[in-house]
Design goal:
Helix content: 55-70%
Largest sheet: none
Shape: rod-shaped
Distance between the termini: 109 Å
Radius of gyration: 32 Å
Oligomer: single chain
Length: about 130
């Protein structure tokens, strides 16, 4: 039985003295289906990397592995709750409301409540 082209390319690059990045990418592509299935069953990317690294199937760092996973698989990182901007109809109206309030505050800036400026000074108030 003949091997598929990606397996043959991976073997060719693994035995040649070409650049490490190309060799590691080829090895990753051979393992990509296994990695995708492990991610879809719920395993973390770090657990997958540790297993493949211990089995000496890959020799790349975790950061490089994570970059390849994000770029070449269906992996989407789970984002923390509250991070990023959520768009809703209520939030779309807020900037307009905030702009109106800012304009209103700018108009009222010269009219402070509870304080009146008197330019005339009383000498008795100053010297006690």
């Amino acid at each position: 039985m003949k091997k598929d082209i990606s397996a043959r390319l991976a073997e060719k690059l693994a035995h040649s003295d070409s650049q490490h990045a190309k060799r590691n990418l080829a090895i990753f592509f051979v393992l990509r289906d296994e990695i995708n299935s492990a991610i879809n069953t719920g395993w973390s990317v770090k657990d997958i990397w540790q297993l493949l690294h211990e089995e000496k199937k890959i020799v790349i760092s975790y950061q490089v592995f994570l970059r390849l996973v994000k770029k070449h698989t269906e992996y989407t990182a789970f984002k923390r709750k509250g991070s990023g901007k959520r768009i809703s109809k209520e939030n779309e109206l807020e900037p307009k409301t905030e702009a109106k309030e800012t304009q209103k505050l700018a108009k009222d800036a010269g009219k402070a409540e509870g304080f009146e400026w008197n330019n005339e000074s009383n000498l008795n108030d100053l010297v006690g």
